[in-house]
Amino acid sequence: MDRLLERPPAEFDDYAADYDGGIGQPLKKCLGGDAVSFVAVKAEWLLGSMRRRWGLDPARKDIQLLDYGCGVGTLLGVLRRQGYAGGLAGCDVSTAMLAEAQRRWSSGPPPQLSVIEDGRVPWGSQFDLVVASAVLHHVEPSLRPAVYRDLLRLVKRGGCVCVFEHNPLNLVTGWVVRHTAIDKNAILLRPAEVRASLAEAGATRLGTEYLIFFPPRWRFFRTLERGLSWSPLGAQYVVCATR
Description:
Elements: H1 9-16, H2 26-32, H3 35-52, E1 64-68, H4 74-81, E2 87-92, H5 95-104, E3 112-115, E4 127-133, H6 144-154, E5 155-166, H7 171-178, H8 191-200, E6 204-211, H9 222-227, E7 236-242
């Protein structure tokens, strides 16, 4: 595994200081309001799944969670503010993004942060939950299998891996990606590819759910969205698996 991500760190570094999760794209801003509102949907899903599916209490301080490709740490901060009390860690190919994550952090003790260097993260299988949110569409397809293997390597046996991605079947998502600067080299992938690749890497108990059917600012639709999680029309999807 010489390297995992196609883009050189410098390309991500260019966006670090003003990174806004692509919310500068007018349509995305109209639908979400700010970058945190989109991330909050994923954080709510994660915390709910920890309780209902995996028997993990987010209030426990001994749980360890890694955000693989954490960027400026938005998901980690939202999880902490929504009540997650366990250990937090993040890694990224961009040292500038990680520096910005440290600068922006305002939710108590900061997470452990590490650069993905030469395609490796300097941690072992120590995490109960490993999350890769909107990462793989930035990875050249031929390099993706190495990422899946590393996700599985980093999670404890019996732990969970969750991959959130843009849904290429959603026309609005496709349009937004094509008109967002940081996604100019993105290659979207379908859930079937994620499931097959995780299975090939050794994962079991694979499942897929869909998210964000309505603008995130319309919070009163959250309950309805949970009932639509089977429908492949959501703007995002999540594939979860067990090591």
